[in-house]
Amino acid sequence: MTLGRAITTVGGFTLLSRVVGFVRDIVLSAVLGSGAVADAFFLAFKLPNFFRRLFAEGAFAAAFVPLFSRELQGNGRDKALAFAREAHAGLLLVLLPFSIVLIAIMPWVLTLLAPGLRAEPRTFDLAVDFSRIAFPYLIFISLAALYGGVLNAIDRFAEVAVTPVLLNVALIGAVLGLTPFLPNGGYAAAVGVAIAGLLQWLWLFLSCSRDGVAMNLVRPRWTKLQARLIALATPVAIGGGVQTISAMLDVVWASWMPIGTISALYYADRLAQLPLGVVGIAIGTALLPLLSRQLRAGHDEAAMANQNRAIEFGLLFCLPAALALWQLAEPVIRILFERGNFGPSDTVRAAGALAALAIGLPAFVLVKALTPGFFAREDTKTPLYVAIAAIAGNAALNAFFLLATSLHATGIALASSAAGWINAFLLGGILIGRGHLVPDRRLLSRAARILAATAGMGAALGLLLHLLKPALAQATISGVLALALVCAAGAAAYAAAGVLLGIVKWSELRTVLRRRRALAADSVTADGPTGPP
C-alpha cells in the first residue's frame, strides 16, 4: 500500500470517528455541562488515556512496529508473530498488576495529578469514583494498541482506524441510556468508557484472528527481541510524547484555576484534535511501518522522499485548519456546545483555549511527520531528549501564565502550543543536521504556495465572519446554517487558491473524479438490477 493511500485510509476513518466524536461531545456538554461533574469526568477520562499513550501507543508504536517489521521482512510471518505474542504476554504481565494498584490508590494518584482539586472535595470525590470505574479501559485499549501495531505492519489500516468510532458510540449510548438510573451523568460516562475499551479490544482481537495474526496467549519469555523492545520502548515511555506530557501538566495547572477550566480545555482540545487526528495521526500511523521497511531494505532515498511527502501532506491540511480554528473559535464552540448545562461564559472560556491551541496545530502535525524518522531507525532516545526540552518550556510558560496573568485556560493552551513548536523545530533541525531529512524542491515550493493559499482563505473567512456576525452569535438553526456556509466557503476558497497556485492540478482532480466514476460504475455492474438504488 502506498503512503498516500495509507494516509487516506487512516484519515478517512479517523474523520468518521471525529464526526461521531462531535456528536459525543455535544451529548456530554448538554448532560455534564462545564462544572464540577464535567471536570471530574474529564479528569477521570484523561487518566487511562494518559497511560495508554505513555506506554501502549507511544512506547509500543515507536518500538514494537519497527522490530515487528524487521522480523516480518527478514524472518517471515511466523517469527514475527511469535515475537508479537511474546510482547502481548509481557504487556499483560505489566498491565494487570499496574491497573489493580492504581485503582486501589486512586485518591493519591489524583492528588498528584490535580492537587488543586483537594480544595473542592465534591469534585475530587467524584473524580476518584469516575476514575476507578473507567480505569479498566487502560488494559483493553493497551492490548488493542499492540494488535493495531501488528495489523498496521501488514498493511491493515482500516480495521485499526475504525476502532475509535466504537468508543464514541459506547459513550453516547451510556450517557443517554444510563444517566436516568445513576446519581449523575458522570457515572454513566465513566461506565461507557470501560465498555468502550472492552468493545475496542474485542474488535481488534477478532480482526487479528481474521487476518491470520491471532494474538493467542503464550507464557511470557525473556528473549533478545524482548530486551530490545524494552530498551527501545523505555525512552519513549519516559518521554511519553511531549503533547501527552504537556496535556497532563495542563491538568495540574488547571486544577488550581476556577472550576470549569479543565472542561474548557477538554472541549477546545477535542476540536483541535480533529485536524490533528485526521492528518497528523494518520501520517504517523502510515509512515512509521513504511519507513521501517524501506530503511531495513536499504532504500534510503525512497524513505526520505516519503518523509518529504508526509510533511507536505501535513502542511496542506493543517495550515488552513489552524487558521480556520483560530478565526472561528468562538462561533464553533457556541454553536456546537452552547445548550443545556453549557452556558455563554463556558463558550468564551473554551473559545479562548481553542484559539490558543490552533496556533500550535501545525507544530503538532509536523511532530507526527518527523518522529517516524527517528523511530524507524530505532532511535527513541533523541525524541525523548527533545520532548524533555519542550516539556520544560511548557512548564515555565504555564508558571508564568498562572502567576503573572489571568488567562487561565487560554494561557495553558498557549503554553502547550509553544511546547509543540519547540518540539517540531528541534526534531526537524536534528533530522536535517544528520542528513536524514533534506527538504526537496517540491516540498519547499509547495509549502510557500500552501501559505499563500491559506492567507487567501483567511481573508475570505474574515469577510464572511463580518457579514454573518449576527447569525453566528446565536446557537440556533440559523447559526448552524451560517457556520456551515462559512466553513464551506472557506474550503472552496482554499481549494480555488490551491488550483490557481498549482498546489493541486486540474489533471489530478480529473483523475480522481474518473476513478470515482469508474468505481461507481463497477459497483452498479456488480450489484446488477437488483442491487441498491
Can you lay out the helices and strands and say which pair or pack?
Layout: H1 3-32, H2 36-75, H3 77-104, H4 106-113, H5 121-134, H6 137-153, H7 158-161, H8 163-178, H9 185-210, H10 224-239, H11 242-254, H12 261-296, H13 300-337, H14 344-370, H15 372-375, H16 381-404, H17 409-433, H18 441-467, H19 469-472, H20 477-500, H21 506-527
Helix pairs in contact: 1-8, 1-12, 1-13, 2-3, 2-5, 2-6, 2-9, 2-10, 2-11, 2-12, 3-6, 5-9, 6-9, 8-9, 10-16, 11-16, 11-17, 12-13, 12-14, 12-17, 13-14, 13-18, 13-20, 14-17, 16-17, 18-20
Average predicted local confidence, pLDDT = 80
Fraction of helical residues? over 70%
Radius of gyration, Cα only, in angstroms?
A: 23 Å
Largest sheet, in brief, is: none
Whole-Å distance between the termini? 31 Å
N to C succession of SSEs: HHHHHHHHHHHHHHHHHHHHH
Overall geometry comes to globular
Strand count: 0
Q: Structural class per helix/strand content?
A: mainly alpha
Number of continuous helical runs? 21
User: Regions with pLDDT < 50 over 5+ consecutive residues?
Assistant: 515-533
